[in-house]
Design a protein that fits this description.
single chain, mainly alpha, 15 helices, about 75% helix, about 0% strand, globular
């Protein structure tokens, strides 16, 4: 492994951050610019079914990742001896999920009526699934401190999307041809990542590793699945409503905001190995004071802020001060601070204790339910404005439910994941063994040849 950023679990350097962010930003900007060019080339009537298909398929990107990338960035830096085995479990899980998604789409295609629209939806679903797999593969590379693979991957994806937009403008490619082009490019990039990850994987996998890795991945995926599922369901509601012509506007707005929001989320994942190691030693009382107690104030302010922003955007639209697409963009921009704040608190809770991870996973699904129920009312009445308002309301419900789930007298006594409990019998009392994978492999695995044993002897179990 190369040490491009100081080793797994270390704080990333400014140079590595700059290169990684540049690659991901180039991809998002290429995606946004390409869609603007496609709208101009195809016209709004042809662009609308493409936007609806791609927007609805977004949830498959999250389902195929299923928290595997975040789980790798959390667990691999903590595991000094079982890291290759963790990579094996995570890689196999990612391939199985992507294969299941492709198989499901293939079966669903048998029941889709023949025509360009059915083929477009199938290709969009396949692209979303393979893009999720691509995210996992480069995330595993980053967990192994192979940052260059991430940068080159997204630079190549940017080139694929740009050339596809050029083909649509110059050669007259339609939505189906363009989606097939970017699907093929993504598939080739996935194949290019597999050899290095196969060499880094450890075989055979020791018993007792698979179950905690899979459960952590599932819990860490709940927030992303809820967010992507909310967006996909709101797109479906908007497409089925009398405001269906606003689907393209909402999709362009989501793409534009993804440059900022996904950049913020990607930055947090770059720091996740360092944050995961740091939070192992944080006292529960400190976590409660700095994170948990801020959930309700954030939710209260967010609810008032969202209501005011919706009224402002709706009034500006009705008074013809701004066109409808600009009103939607205005509302979304006003809700971005709420997305950032709730996302930051959720990020800390995911990487703290096992109890906070479960609480934020359940509350994310509750936020999805709240957003969908409100969307059933707001989207038919307000169109894209109602979809954005429902999305923001789901974030408020997420924060409220997380606070309620963590509002327990036993919360302050929950140890941080991987951190020993507080001493109760003086400074000489021995601490119980850690409870995470990285700590377990230190006390169950023998040191490799040539390595000195640990200074403190621990009896065999």
């Amino acid at each position: 492994m190369t040490a491009q950023s100081g080793g797994p679990g270390r704080r990333p350097t400014a140079r590595s951050l700059t290169s990684l962010l540049a690659g991901r930003t180039a991809f998002r900007l290429a995606l946004l610019g390409a869609n603007a060019a496609l709208l101009a080339s195809w016209g709004e009537r042809a662009y609308e079914p493409y936007a609806a298909a791609m927007g609805t398929a977004q949830v498959l990107t999250t389902l195929t990742t299923l928290g595997i990338e975040k789980s790798a960035l959390k667990l691999v830096p903590r595991a000094r001896r079982t890291g290759p085995q963790l990579i094996t479990v995570l890689l196999v899980s990612a391939l199985l999920l992507a294969g299941a998604a492709v198989l499901w789409l293939g079966c669903a295609a048998l029941f889709v009526p023949a025509g360009d629209t059915g083929m477009l939806r199938l290709l969009a679903g396949l692209y979303a699934a393979l893009l999720g797999l691509n995210t996992v593969l480069v995330g595993l590379c980053r967990a192994l401190d192979r940052n260059r693979a991430d940068v080159l991957n997204f630079a190549a994806l940017s080139l694929v999307i740009t050339t596809g937009a050029g083909g649509a403008s110059v050669l007259g490619w339609g939505p189906t041809a363009f989606t097939g082009w970017i699907l093929g490019g993504t598939a080739l990039l996935n194949l290019a990542q597999l050899p290095a990850l196969h060499r880094a994987a450890g075989r055979p996998v020791r018993g007792g590793i698979t179950r905690p890795v899979v459960s952590t991945s599932v819990l860490m995926a709940c927030g992303d699945i809820a967010a992507a599922g909310t967006v996909s369901l709101l797109f479906a509601m908007l497409g089925a409503s009398r405001h269906h012509e606003q689907t393209g506007h909402l999709y362009l707005m989501v793409l534009a905001s993804s440059v900022l929001l996904n950049g913020f989320g990607y930055l947090m994942r770059l720091f996740q190995p360092h944050v995961s190691l740091t939070l192992r030693s944080v006292a529960p009382a400190s976590l409660d004071r700095r994170v948990v107690r801020r959930l309700l104030p954030v939710a209260a302010v967010g609810a008032v802020w969202t209501t005011g922003a919706l009224c402002l955007a709706r009034s500006a639209e009705q008074a013809a001060l701004v066109p409808p697409p600009v009103a939607v963009l205005l509302l979304y921009v006003l809700c971005v601070p709420l997305f950032f704040t709730v996302g930051s608190l959720n990020y800390l809770l995911e990487n703290a204790t096992s109890r906070t991870l479960r609480a934020t996973a359940v509350s994310a699904l509750g936020g999805l339910l709240c957003a969908v129920l409100l969307g059933l009312v707001l989207v038919p009445a307000l169109g894209a404005l109602g979809a954005v308002a429902a999305l923001s309301s789901g974030e408020v419900a997420h924060a409220v439910l997380a606070r309620l789930l963590l509002n327990s007298p036993h919360h302050g006594r929950t140890p941080a994941a991987g951190a020993p409990p507080e001493r109760t019998t003086g400074p000489t009392a021995p601490a119980p063994p850690p409870a995470d994978l990285g700590a377990r492999d230190e006390r169950t695995s023998a040191p490799p040849p040539g390595e000195r044993p640990l200074a403190r002897h621990r009896p065999r179990r």
